[in-house]
Amino acid sequence: MAWGKKKGGRKEPLFGLPAALADLRLTAADRIPGGDDKPKKSAKSSAKRKSDDAGDEPPRERKAQASRSGAKRRSKSGGGFSLGRLVYWGAVLSLWCVIAVIGVVVYVGAHLPPIQSLEIPKRPPTIQIVGIDGSMLAQRGEMAGANVSLKDLPPYLPKAFIAIEDRRFYSHFGIDPIGILRALVTNVLHRGVSQGGSTLTQQLAKNLFLTQERTMQRKLQEAELAIWLERKHSKNEILELYLNRVYFGSGAYGVEAAAQKYFGKSAKNVTVAEAAMLAGLVKSPSRLAPNRNPEGAEARAQIVLAAMADAKFITEAQAKASIGHASYDVKPAGAGTVNYVADWIGEVLDDLVGQIDESIKVETTIDPKLQSVAEAAIIDELAAKSVKFNVSQGALVAMTPDGAVRAMVGGRNYSDSQYNRAVTAKRQPGSSFKPFVYLTALEQGLTPDTVRQDAPIEVKGWRPENYTHEYFGAVTLTQALAMSLNTVAIRLGLEVGPKNVVRTAHRLGISSKLEPNASIALGTSEVSVVELVGAYAPFANGGLAVTPHVVTRIRTLSGKLLYMRQPDERNQVIDPRYVGMMNTMMRETLINGTAKKAEIPGWPAAGKTGTSQDYRDAWFIGYTASLVTGVWLGNDDNSPTKKATGGGLPVEVWTRFMRTAHEGVPVAALPNSQATWGLSNLAQAASQVSPPTAAPSAPANNGGYRPPPPTRANVRPEAAAGLDGWLMDRLFGGNR
After folding, report:
1. What percent of the chain has pLDDT above 70?
2. Which residue stretches does the UniProt record annotate as biased composition, category Basic and acidic residues (predicted)?
3. 105-141 confidence digits (pLDDT tens)
C-alpha cells in the first residue's frame, strides 16, 4: 500500500499496481537533456517579466513590436543573401563571356593565314595600252594607277578621307569602339544601316586580304587584321597604302588613277573640291562615279566638304568656295569601243609574253583618230536606221594591206555588251565570199572576160536563185561578180571544185572551218570579220599573205623590252597577174555593181558586198592600196533584218569611214591594176564568148582594165545601154 499526498501534506494510501508504477516514474532531474528540451526559466524570472510587461505597455503593443522585430531580422537575413547571389552569378556570366570571346577570336584567327606569314601584297600588274601615236587607249588590271607617296599629295587630300571615313584615325588602335557605338546608335535611330563603323585600317585590311562578302566572320577577320596592321605599320604608312589601293569606280584603283580618270591630272595637283569628290566616291564608287552620276558625285562632295570644315581641316569659307568647282575632265558616256581592242589584246598577251608579274605598256597599231571615226560611223548609222531595218549590232575592222589593224569596233556599245563581233562572232559572209571562188577560177585558166551562163540551176534538189529571180543569159565573169549573180557563182564553184575553193580561202587567211559543198560559193560557212578582212588584204598588197595584228611592242614600265613584232614573211599567195584581174573585177563592183555608193573621191577602190540567207547578215569588204576595211551589220540572235543588204547600210558605214581615213593621204593605184593578161588570154576569152563581145575598151580613169558592156545578144534589150542602166538598177541590193 502506498500513501498519496494531499494539499495539506497528508499522504493518501494507494493500493494495487498503480501505486507501484507511480513509484517508478522519472523526475525531471533523472532525464538526459535533448535537442528539443529547453531550460525552463525560474519562477522568479517569469514573474519579473510578467511584472515588467504589465507595467510598461499593453499586451497588443508588445505583440506588434515583436512582429516588427522578427520582420526586420528576416529582411536583413534575406537582403544579404540576394546581393551575394547577384555578385556571384555576375562573375560567372562575365567569365563565360570572356571564354566565349576568346573562343570566337581563336576560331576566326584559325581561318586566317598565319599572322607571321602575312605580307602586304604587291599591286597586281597594270597593262597600259597605247595607240600608234603613243596616247593612252585603255588600261587593264585590278590596280590601274601608279603609287603616290603621302608626302607628295596635297595635305587636304588625305584629310578629306579622314574627315568623312575615319575622324579618329590617328587615335584608335585599328578598331574604333566609339565609332562603332556611334554608328550603332545612328543605325538604330534610322532603323537601318545608314552609317558604318569601319576604320580606314579595317577597310584597308578588307581590300588587301579579304573578300567583299558581308558576313560576321569577315567583319571579325577584318578587325583582327586591322589590329595586326596597326602593330606592323605606322599610321602614315597605313594611310598611304589605303589611298593607293582603294577603289574609285570606273576601273580606277588608287587616287592617282582616279584623278587621271575623272580630272585628267595627277593626284598631286587636285584641288580641294576634287579631293572632296574623290573622298566621297569611296562610299559607293559604282553609283557615285562622276562619269555615270555627276549630280550624285557633286552632292556627296558637298557632304565631304562640310565634314572637313567641321573637323577644322579647312575653313568654312574654303568649303563654300569649293562647292561645285571640281574641274571634270570626264569623257562623255559612250560606246567605249576601244575596249574591244583591249580585250583582244588581253587574249593574245599570254601567247606573246606569258604570265606577267609587273606592269607593262603595250604599243599597238591602233590609230586613235580612225578608231573614233569608226565608232561614230557604226553608232550613228545604227541610231538612224536600226529600227527601220531591224538591225541591232555592227562591227568594223580596218587594217593596212600588211595586216596592221588601225581600228576595230566590236559592237555599238561596249558598256551594254562586251561580246566582240569583230573577232569572236562568226557569221555567214554571203556573196562577200565569192572572190575566193572567182580567184580559184582564174587560177585554173579563166579570165575576167570568160563567159558563163546566168540561168536556173539545180544541185541535188537545191535550186539557188538570183535576188531578183531574173536571169541574164551569157555574161562575163566580171559582170557576174559585179552583179553578184548567184547561179554563175554556183556553176564556177562546181566547175573548179568546192575543195579547191576552200583551199584558196584558207591560203589567203581564212582560218575558220569551211564546208566544201556546192553552197560554199554563196558563203554559207561562217567566218569572223577580222579574218575575212585579212583574207582580202592580199588583193590590196600585191598577193602577199598577212596576219592581222595589233601589238607591235611590249615593255615594262621601267623600259625593259619583252616583245617586238617581227615582219611577216613575204609569202606570195596570189600570182600578181591574178591580183590585177581580181582588182579589175572587184573595181567594177564599185563602179557599176552592187556597191556603187561606195566611192572615195580620187581613190581607186575595189570590194564585194554580201548578204546572207533571209537578210540575216549584211557585209561589205572594200579596199584601197592604203587600207582594207570590212563592215558587218546584223542581230546577235541571228534573226532576219528587214531586207538590210550589203549594198545598203554597210556601204554607207564603209564610205563614211574610208573618206575620212584617206584625207591627206597620197593617192595610190591598186596593185597590178594597170597590168593586162596578154593577147593570148584575150584570144582565149574571145573564143569562149558566145556570141562574141566587143573588144576591150580603153583603160579606165583608175588605170585598170575595164570590161566591155554586155551586148544585145546576151542581155535583154532594155539593158543594152550598159551595166549602169536598167539591168544594174534592178539588181542593186540583192543577195550579194
Report:
1. 71
2. 49-64
3. 665 555 555 555 566 667 778 888 999 999 989 888 6
Distance of CA 380 to the CA centre of its chain: 24
CA angle 539, 531, 374 (to 5 degrees): 85
In Å, what is the CA distance from 94 to each residue of 88, 97, 101?
A: 10, 5, 11
Task: For residues 314 and 442, state if they share a domain.
Answer: no
- The gap between the terminal CA atoms of the chain, to the nearest Å, is 160
CA distance 292 to 289: 5
DSSP structure string for 216-231: HHHHHHHHHHHHHHHH
Q: Give the residue among 688, 713, 264 at the shortest CA–CA distance from 476.
A: 688
Give which of 629, 681, 621, 679 is closest to 647, Cα–Cα.
621
The CA distance from 47 to 322, in Å, is 102
Nearest Cα to Cα of residue 254 among 197, 196, 322, 207 = 207
What average pLDDT does the segment 267-276 reach?
A: 94
Please indicate, yes or no, whether residues 306 and 432 belong to a single structural domain of this protein: no
Residue 408: domain span? 379-731
% of the chain at pLDDT higher than 90: 51
- CA nearest to 569, candidates 448, 403, 376: 403
C-alpha cell at 389: 531595218
612-628 burial: b if 16+ Cβ within 10 Å, else e: beebbbbbbbbbbbbbb
Same domain flag for 262 and 391: no
Same domain, 161 and 294: yes
Determine if the pTM surpasses 0.70. Answer: no
Confidence of residue 695 (pLDDT cuts 50, 70, 90): very low
253: amino acid identity, one letter: Y
* End residue of a domain, out of 322, 345, 363: 322
Residues 131, 138: Cα–Cα separation, whole Å: 9
What are the C-alpha distances in Å from 642 to residues 342, 410, 426, 618, 668? 33, 22, 21, 11, 38
* 567 alpha-carbon distance from chain centroid: 34
At CA 641, angle to CA 637 and CA 645, rounded to 5? 125
Rg of the chain over all Cα atoms, to the nearest angstrom = 49
Give SS3 for 238.
helix
C-alpha–C-alpha distance, residues 219 and 198, integer Å: 9
Secondary element (H or E) of residue 244: helix 235-245
305: domain CATH number? Answer: 1.10.3810.10
Length of the chain: 736
Q: Nearest CA to 262 among 302, 293, 283?
A: 293
Stretch 489-509: mean pLDDT, rounded?
97
Residue 579: its H or E element? helix 576-591
Handedness of CA 366, 124, 212, 282 (dihedral sign): negative
Please answer whether residues 520 and 502 qualify as being in contact, where contact means their C-beta atoms are separated by less than 8 angstroms: yes
Q: How many helices (H) and strands (E) does the chain have?
A: 24, 14
Burial label for 102, CB within 10 Å (0-12, 13-18, 19+), is exposed
Is the peptide bond preceding residue 691 cis, with omega within 30 degrees of 0?
A: yes
Exposed / middle / buried, residue 110 (Cβ in 10 Å: 0-12, 13-18, 19+):
exposed
Q: For residue 563, give the CATH number of its domain.
A: 3.40.710.10
Per the structure, the count of domains in the chain is 2
Residue with cell 584558207: 506
- Where on the phi/psi map is residue 312: left (φ > 0), alpha (ψ -120 to 50), or beta? left
Same domain, 696 and 573: yes
C-beta neighbour count of 207 within 10 angstroms: 16
Do 695 and 559 have their domain in common?
Answer: yes
At residue 378, φ and ψ (nearest 5 deg) are -70, -50
Grid coordinates standing for 277? 569628290
Label the pairing between strands 127-130 and 360-364: parallel
HSE (side-chain half, CA atoms, 13 Å) at 423: 21
- 3-class SS of residue 409: strand
If asked whether residues 256 and 397 sit together in one domain, one would say: no
